[in-house]
Amino acid sequence: MKRGYLSEYFEGIGMKRISAVEADVLHSNQHEFNGVTGFKAILGEPQDKVRYPTRFLYLGDDDQEPITSDGFLTWYDARQKGRVAGNTNRSEYRLYFPTSEVSNRSASGDLLVIGKRHDGTMLAVIAKCRTTSEQQLLWLFGLDEITDSIFTVKVDLESTRDEVGFAAKAILDQIGVVVEEDAPDFLEQMLTQFGSGFPKTFVFSDFARRSLQLNPIDDPDLALVAWMEREELLFKTLERHLLAAQIRELQKVEIDTDSYMKLFMSFQQRRKSRAGSALENHMEEIFSSHRITYTRTGVTERGLKPDFIFPGISNYRDPQFPATHLTMVAAKTTCKDRWRQILNEAARIPEKHLLTLEPSISQGQTDEMKSERVQLVLPQALHETYAEMQRGWLMSLADLLAIAKARQSAPRH
Predict the structure, then answer these.
(1) What one-character DSSP code corresponds to residue 163?
(2) Does residue 310 contact residue 291 with C-beta atoms inside 8 Å?
(3) Strand order in the sheet with 50-59
(4) What's the pLDDT at 249?
(5) Are 139 and 390 in contact (CB under 8 A)?
(6) Structure confidence at residue 170 (pLDDT)
(7) Which one, of 33, 38, 36, lies nearest residue 18 by Cα?
(8) What are the Cα distances from residue 168, in Å, to 200, 202, 289?
(9) Is 379 helix (H, G, I), strand (E, B) or coil?
(10) CATH for 295-409, among 2.10.77.10, 3.30.43.10, 3.40.91.80, 3.40.50.11290?
């Protein structure tokens, strides 16, 4: 096991397509995955049945959160009794699973990924065919495509391709794999500066930026990713400390399950809302560093508030100001189907720019974006997670800045 690689989280993984026959089996009482021979490399050849506690997930772009259920996968040799009786020397290992909401959602062609964790548990993920979730899993595990209904198994997860960087962390988080990181060297400084609570998001973003020596003028794409990574790391460090302190306080009084639930939900909600604010905060710093004028969350038609309008909301509201000189940028850490929300946010600007940190969005989704005149913008490092045929269309943050600067300085007549 090598720190910083997928081998830190999985002993091995297997991927396949769910066949038409299997799709029917998934909804019946015969719950066995086909084509599992390759799993011998991960699960071995035990004499008795082995039951693995398993978290099942179903991922589809229409769902904001994965469909999850807990159960077991059972690995066993269907011919063991025959060998004991002396009737055969062959083995026939099978992988049994229970009925769940996840198996009921599956269909022919969906991608199935099963991974064995180091703690003896399994993770089974079904991703709907031709979705962003499917493309992300293929990229994460270094496979261009899976067409076979027989498992492709990987046990070597320590190649250069298996390093867990910014994009990989985002995908692992979506499938419930926690990347444990903290920055203890900064904890005392944060407690001194912020006390026993979380500061406002713009204050925390500024602290994260100042903890790194980066010039957003030289490489804005690199700066944005580095700042987001650092803020995430610092936030988790402070969050872990504050959560532990509040749990200790709860333990001093009578145990109240509702109090614990409220505490965890408040921390979870803060984590979700903070990520989007952090992205906008760091983008704002980059725009200012490049001396690009803008308005953040200015009000347009029907009270809608685009994340950024260039060169400013007063220009947008001026009917004499050329629409060709206006730019709208939406910021979303992840997209899924939510990118359509930006389509009517600024009626004067037919082409919208959408900056996201979502790796490996599906071809189908990017084709839809093109048809709706939404231009996808990503930090340059994330472009490699997309298919080659998509990359020529993608725009980097540096590209976006060049457009905003050109329009800001263009003659207005």
Answers:
(1) B
(2) no
(3) 32-33, 93-96, 67-77, 50-59, 122-127, 111-116, 12-17, 152-154
(4) 65
(5) no
(6) 92
(7) 33
(8) 28, 26, 29
(9) coil
(10) 3.40.91.80
Q: At residue 105, what is the residue type?
A: R
Closest CA to 402 of 194, 217, 144, 182: 217
| Angular region, 40: left φ>0, alpha ψ -120 to 50, beta rest | alpha
Quick one: which H or E segment has residue 212?
A: none
pLDDT at 144: 78
> Domain locations in the chain?
6-174, 184-289, 295-409
Residue 27 has what pLDDT? 57
The dihedral sign for the CA sequence 37, 41, 47, 49: negative
CATH class, domain 6-174, is mainly beta
Distance, in Å, from the CA atom of 139 to the CA atom of 144, rounded to the nearest integer, reads 7
Q: What does the pLDDT read at residue 179?
A: 86
- Residues 112 and 16: beta-carbon distance below 8 Å: yes
HSE-up of residue 77 (Cα within 13 Å, Cβ side): 17
Between CA 268 and CA 396 the distance in angstroms is 31
pLDDT < 70 positions in the chain: 25-30, 81-89, 249-261, 263-264, 266-270, 412-413
| pLDDT tens by residue, 128-177 | 999 999 999 999 999 878 888 899 999 999 887 789 999 999 999 999 99
Residue 412 is predicted with a pLDDT of 67
